[in-house]
Design a protein that fits this description.
Elements lengths: L6 H12 L3 H14 L4 E7 L5 E6 L6 H7 L25 H6 L3 E7 L6 E7 L2 E2 L3 E3 L4 E7 L6 H4 L5 H18 L4 E6 L2 E6 L5 H9 L2 H4 L1 E8 L2 E8 L4 E2 L5 E5 L2 E2 L3 H11 L10 E2 L1 E6 L5 E2 L10 E2 L2 H18 L52 H5 L2 E2 L16 E6 L3 E5 L3 E6 H15 L7 E11 L2 H8 L2 H6 L3 E4 L4 E8 L7 H13 L11 H11 L10 H13 L13 E5 H7 L4
Parallel strand pairs: 1-8, 13-16
Antiparallel strand pairs: 1-2, 2-7, 3-4, 3-7, 4-5, 4-6, 8-9, 10-11, 11-16, 12-15, 13-14, 17-18, 19-20, 20-21, 21-22, 22-26, 23-25, 24-25
Helix pairs in contact: 2-6, 6-7, 6-13, 9-10, 12-16, 12-17, 15-16
């Protein structure tokens, strides 16, 4: 029999769409604060937000009547003309407050700047009380306790306190990056996790979130085409992370996950990072698109968008990024062909959009030194960097090994070897990477040989990354790593596997952290050992650009011959190619 559902159940169903975990509820509350034109937003959480969280702002505030209306479904001040096309605010659906209040205990205290006192309203699992007078500073504070206590089945889907805290941090980081003129703070159990002061310099805020190393490895991007504006910063192709978590993409002030934008980023870096590369570029890009050309009302979480002309958006991103990388001496696969985007201006004056939610992009490009100065053209001898040494004499009757004997190193990257009836070209990094990986896999289950560092390597990380890494101390020790917390935002590496004694320790630890972030709380490192070994092998191998002696090159060839899988690197690329003598003679017309 058909029936109308009760309002409380309707709100709980809506909460299932909007409120997935504490982080998603906090996101909605921060967006409300931004819409209220706050310039300071403070977030507090307990147990990762599972038992308590609050968001305090110094925005416009609400009157008694507005406070009572705010906890009703689909009550909003953000669609003044009832036009779902002209959306200029972050929150406009009117679902967040009633949805959260339907599954938790909520208290809202608010005071508009023009009133002498504030008001407070309480809602318990959808049952609201009348507003009452309450002492309050200007702005609004929303407090939420016992999230999902009214729907216990949802509680079992929450993760550990550490995981929920990391999710909250990610939400605050994403919103803080886009609104640099707002100060943000985040506390967990009275411990400060985030403190971002307000700034008019977007690059400063982006670097606060991603890390100060980004400043030395990023290039500014700014362009405009037919009313679509792009601003932001892209990392050099050599500055990568193990996952794509450090790719921040915004559309009209919203951090989004969009296949068009992600595909454009991949296309822009194609040919610059190597086919099948495990690395992901680091970047923060901000798109401003006319409201009638983008639909932000695709999902309740508002993390997806739909473009009226996706091809034009993709073209602008690809052209802009590749042009910037090419201008700063980065090698591109071919001449950039942007077709109709050829008239796109690369450095126009970027004005602040008319809508209030996409703020502070005027004067975001102050004078600062380029992240990487444009290199002078290299001479022919420098660019080839050929190192040739005379190999040891070989008796005429001696048969050459399967992979031959090394003759030279080309571009500090490739080994040229002479075999019986062929010439081999070996990628030294790809080959050594495979050998390192196989050695690590063979030693699984055994106590690894370790290398004690005379001076511990101190590595800067985010506080939650330090906590994540140190929570796996015993498992890391079994792998040969001795890692300890060194303050709240650093770790000290005291020992590492002997196989990785020449590794880039800082990059290896960062990749390990990025990999751990993708695991569930209950997943053991040994169950993901292949993934972890692959990451460490990559950074613990002979790098391209390292000059090798003939003896070192031949030693590498002999190790490859002893490894049955040395023909492919761990990413599936070939480690060497063979040019048969017969084929070479045919190319030169000798046969």
């Amino acid at each position: 029999m058909l029936r109308l559902l009760p309002q409380t159940l309707i709100n709980q169903i809506a909460a299932g769409e909007v409120v997935e975990r504490p982080a998603s509820a906090i996101k909605e509350l921060i967006e409300n604060a931004i819409d209220a034109e706050a310039n300071r937003i403070d977030i507090r959480i307990h147990q990762g937000g599972k038992t308590y969280f609050s968001v305090t702002d110094n925005g416009k505030g609400m009157t008694k009547d507005e406070l009572a209306l705010a906890v009703e479904r689909h009550a909003t001040s953000k669609l003044p003309d009832d036009n779902l096309v002209n959306i200029t605010f972050l929150g406009f659906r009117g679902e967040a407050l009633p949805s959260i209040a339907s599954v938790a205990k909520m208290k809202i205290t608010s005071r508009p700047q023009e009133t002498p006192s504030g008001w407070m309203i309480e809602v318990d699992a959808g049952h609201k009380k009348d507003p009452v007078p309450a002492p309050a500073t200007y702005g609004t504070t929303v407090e939420v306790r016992d999230l999902f206590y009214a729907t216990p089945a949802r509680l079992k889907f929450l993760k550990s306190e550490q995981s929920e805290q990391m999710a909250v941090r990610e939400v605050v980081d994403k919103l803080a990056m886009c609104y640099p003129n707002i100060s943000f703070s985040l506390e967990n159990e009275n411990k400060k996790l985030i403190s971002y002061p307000a700034t008019e310099n977007l690059f400063d805020r982006v670097s606060m979130v991603i890390g100060h190393e980004f400043k030395d490895n990023a290039l500014p991007v700014q362009s405009e085409y037919e009313g679509i504006k792009l601003a932001g910063f892209v990392g050099l192709p050599t500055y990568t992370r193990a996952t794509s978590t450090e790719q921040y993409l915004y559309v009209n002030g919203r951090c989004v996950k969009d296949k068009v934008l992600l595909g454009a980023v991949r296309g822009a870096y194609q040919g610059l990072m190597g086919h099948g590369s495990d690395g992901h570029p680091v970047l923060a890009l901000f798109l401003s698109v006319p409201c009638d050309q983008v639909d932000v009302n695709v999902s309740p979480a508002k993390t997806e968008v739909r473009f009226a002309d996706a091809g034009r958006i993709r073209g602008l991103l690809v052209a802009s990024i590749r042009n910037v990388l090419a201008e700063h001496g980065q090698k591109t696969a071919s001449t950039l062909n942007i077709g109709p985007l050829g008239s796109a201006e690369q450095k126009p004056t970027y004005t602040q959009p008319a809508h209030p939610s996409f703020r502070s992009y005027h004067s975001i490009y102050p004078s600062y030194p380029s992240a990487q100065p444009k290199q002078e053209a290299l001479s022919l001898s420098d660019s080839y960097s050929v190192k040739v040494e005379k190999p040891a004499e070989t008796a005429p009757e001696q048969k050459l090994p399967p992979l031959g004997l090394a003759k030279a190193q080309i571009h500090k990257t490739y080994i040229v070897s002479q075999a019986e009836d062929a010439i081999l070209i070996v990628d030294q990094h790809a080959a050594h990477e495979r050998l390192t990986y196989e050695k690590m896999m063979q030693n699984m289950g055994e106590k690894p040989q370790t290398q004690l560092l005379l001076v511990p390597e101190i590595i800067d990380l985010k506080p939650e990354e330090v906590s994540l890494l140190t929570s796996r101390t015993e498992e890391l020790k079994e792998m040969g790593w001795i890692v300890e917390a060194f303050g709240s935002d650093c770790v000290a590496v005291r020992e590492l596997p002997a196989l990785l004694d020449k590794a880039d320790i800082k990059q290896t630890i960062q990749d390990l952290v990025d990999t751990l972030k993708t695991f569930e709380d209950t997943v053991l490192l040994k169950d993901k050992m292949k993934d972890i070994c692959a990451r460490m092998a990559c950074h613990g191998s002979v790098r391209a650009g390292r000059v090798l002696t003939i003896d070192e090159m031949n030693a590498l060839l002999r190790q490859m011959e002893a490894c049955g899988t040395s023909g492919q690197c761990i990413h599936g690329r070939p480690t060497y190619i063979t040019l048969k003598l017969d084929d070479i003679e045919k190319m030169f017309g000798r046969k």
